[in-house]
Queue: 4 jobs
Job 1
Amino acid sequence: MSSKSDEQKMDRRSLIKAGVTVGSGVLLASAIKTSTSVADVVGGKSTQIKDLPKGMADDEFSRMQTELLKALAKPETENHWIMVIDQRKCVGCISCTVACKAENALPPGAVYRPVIEHEIGTFPNVRRSFLPRPCMHCENPPCVSVCPVNATYKRPDGIVSINYERCIGCRYCLNACPYGARQFDWGEYYTENTPEIQPYEKVANYEYGIGRVREKGNSPIGNARKCHFCVHRIKKGMLPTCVTTCMGRATYFGDLNDKKSLVHELIGSARVMRLKEELGTKPSVYYLV
């Protein structure tokens, strides 16, 4: 009797295991097909993006990735990249800040995505809110008009960029930005005043798709610096690093011009706002409050 019962348990276990294996295989096969399409689109070989498998269609992260690839299949002039940050989901872990510094090999003093903390209320009814503050990538950016050498410019897809080779380090743009989103690279190192500068400080970063090693006398030392929506990642079909590392899934990214995109849906919320809208800068970063 015991032997027969054990056999039934084993058969049941085997059946479940087989089902999981088959299901995983189907999901993996679908993911591989999608990955192939990703490579083709980024390489300019295809404009066909496969839809997500049914089980993944409701996942916001997977949806953003698919929508990113669909947007990249269009000319740059037809995109308008925006970011949406849900303050109710942000827990102030600053993983986005740390990931951004690592992604861009940022030096001391340069923080592209600080998280501003606010304390609200009085004891005992006190709470804290967190406000990640990247560059706003304004439609009317004050930093562009004040640059005397046109080193700061707005791309057709809405991303405000800096040409490091053209920047003369005058810092007019730092003063013009009403959001304090720009920093200056003074050429400092974390391990200076030690026996030697450590190798990790000489690792190349790939901002704007160009590999640069920070060295005295060369860009980006002596330049204004800021968040660029990880344009080097976007070009390769990847979401900005702050989006992929957000443990609360509080940050969203996509093409505003895609009326069916997740970000377009989110900014239709009644609780959406943008910082300092009264200035007429028209930021491309939206907040859900």
Job 2
Amino acid sequence: MFSAVESRRLYRQVADQIRSMIATGELAVGQRLPPERELAEKLAVSRPTIREALIVLEVEGLVHIRMGSGIYVARKHTIQPAQPEREPFEGPFELLQARAIIECAIAEEAAQRATPSHIAVLDENLQQMASVVGDTNAALAVDRAFHTAIAGIVENAVLIRFTGEIYDQRMTPYFEKLASHFEGPDSWTWAMEEHRAIRNAIAANDPVAAKQAMRTHLDRSQKRFSESFGEEFFGEDEGRAAQRKAKI
């Protein structure tokens, strides 16, 4: 029986509870999990928390995502003797939230300092992105370079290092697994156009517009992650799916 969880990196608690239910047989191999919305209600947590927990379990091989069908128990989990708690890691949505808070402020400051040479660097980056949208690994490298280049405009070594380090935290098996469900040429093309809007605001030396453009970019990035792990994974009927997509 699912029960509400209390705060402490909630997605880890949710993963622990589902893992235990698989171990005891309450969730059997091949069984489909309840819809995301239902899980969130039963566990009294947000839907992003459910997504992060399920990604942990998918990386461990305990559940399997079947596009357009749902999430199923993939194998039996054996309860091990008590061990030290796993090394903590940040969830994908937690990282995106942190990036939004910091990088919006950086973009705002960069817009007040940008020179033509800075804009030339951003323009070159956009050209590179256009040539690699079909290659996720290359696109990731160019994407990282774009965000660190904006921090470079501020000429603060701490911010440059922080921007690079927080971006690199997405290079975990958990974030990569989540990204594998949505990243491709279309998503990178959208990201590139969002980058162009950020570039234009910074080039115009408009701090308000630059901050908003960065916020829009990171909000849309999170939305893409969220939608990729939404109800379509739980056998949503075609009518509801069409209605939801029409609202986007």
Job 3
Amino acid sequence: MTTETQSETRVDIFIAHRPALIAYAVRLLGSRDAAEDIVQDAFVRFLPSSTRTVSKGQLLAYLYRTVRNLSLDVLRRRKVAAIGHQDDVPFWSVPADVPTPEQSTLLCDDVRRISQILSELPVEARVAVEMHRFGGYTLEEVASHLGISTASAHRYVTAAMMKIATALLVNAT
């Protein structure tokens, strides 16, 4: 097979599989425009790549591998560019959002309502909620402290949270 014939075979393979190659690159990159660019770059590398005789299957595999590698290169470059664009401003230098007086009042009302609901709960249920939700204890630790099963601690916390959520939703409407 002459070099000219090999070149024609490569062009025929590329033309026949170009739509599939673009679809493959779109799945990797998420962009049709970028995928078309990658497939074109792959063709530029594919056409003069070797003068030795190989099967059409090997040529197609080489073409897909080239598209994949070029796509991964693009994804790496995007990731590096995204990291480079992150703001290096320390969190403490960014001003905090100040709530409006109305938001502050509503928050205070919600806190009062939650406090009232907690005070109405049985002691074990109140302690379970306070430990788990406010203290950061696990349900196993809450159960151990109260001398109850983990399932009971879970029931106490769930029932109390449902009661709180319901009361807050009723007040919101």
Job 4
Amino acid sequence: MVEEVRTVKLNLLNLTERKSKLLSELLNVCKSAGDHLFKTAVYLEVFNKPESRFALQEVEYDHIKERFALHSQIIVDLCKDVFTACRNGGLNFFKYTIPYNVPRSSKLAETENGNPVISVATLDGRIGLPISQDGAWERFNEFLEDGYEFTSFRLKKEQDDWHILVPLRRESEVKGEFDSVLGVDVGSRTLASVTVLSKERVEEQLYFGRDVWEKQRDISIRRSELQSHADRGSSKARRKLRDLKNYESNFVKTRCYQVAHKIVKLAKQYNSVVAIEDLTGLKNARGHRKSDRRTKRMPYCTFRVALESVCKREGVPLIAVDPYHTSQSCPNCGSLGKRKQKGVIFECECGYRANADRVASLNIALRASETIHNSKRIFAQSPKGNVPVNGHDWRDWGSEIMSSHGYSPPERKPTTSIVGS
């Protein structure tokens, strides 16, 4: 059994001034409470206290309830969010969302006229938020009819508008009539690195969407130039900045859907199940400034929504796998390796050497294959015996074998050369 996850972004109709004010106040209080919980979580880690969200909740629940007057379930969800974000390397509440649980702090309902509303808890009781009955609402209901369920959602503020982000889940069994698994690694430089893994070998490996990173880099340079003029009071520069933001957003969204269509077409060609990393919470992770900027520029959410949408429309199964060490684990021996040459090349002590994005997509495909077939598979590229170069090998050839894969331009097969004794 695997868990299928779909994310739907529901739009709200125009809210009254009172409701908008209540939600804005609640968001600010959630930010303050989250910052306080983050400091407590750091304290617990420093002083070797029990590390769990329940320990954090036990220490801070009464204090948060008294100081911030939040709904009980929202406090519980905040503790969970903070602990999860700390485990992922840090927390940033600048663009925080309000977490809700169904039915404890919210519920889906209808007005007397049959219009859909979402009832949510605030600092001043519950309020009903009218949902727009557009295409997103229709897709949401289609998912529910297909057996998906939701037990939580998040309210997100984008400029002056509010949106509902709903994760829908269902347990399903991926049937055995599929011939392969297509692993997708989403990266900062290459939007999607793809590996098609069949029972016998790697069928195809491709890179899609490197132009997205290049376009974002050029826009970032242009943005910094315009920002310097805007800081000196130029209204024209401020207008250009707004236009540039919309242009970048539209370009990224368009390319995400184009790449998603190519991936699904490839999956149908090989009769594959599509597997992607579950990178939820990625933008809350903290790293050094340069890597942090690249990470937050990754359009993971946009790409995942696009891939989910196209997969559903074309009838291709999509599963999410645990991203833990997918880019650091050696597909040959299973041990942890290192990324060299500015993170482009992966090297392992066993001698395996390959493009890092290629390794990640292969590991994702292997992990999904293990989930589907309940058996562990070790991938090795070995010129010995009767094992094909892109075949599966249960043996560990150790340091005798080294396979070298250079970095290739996007949307091309990587060139492969084998170096061995």
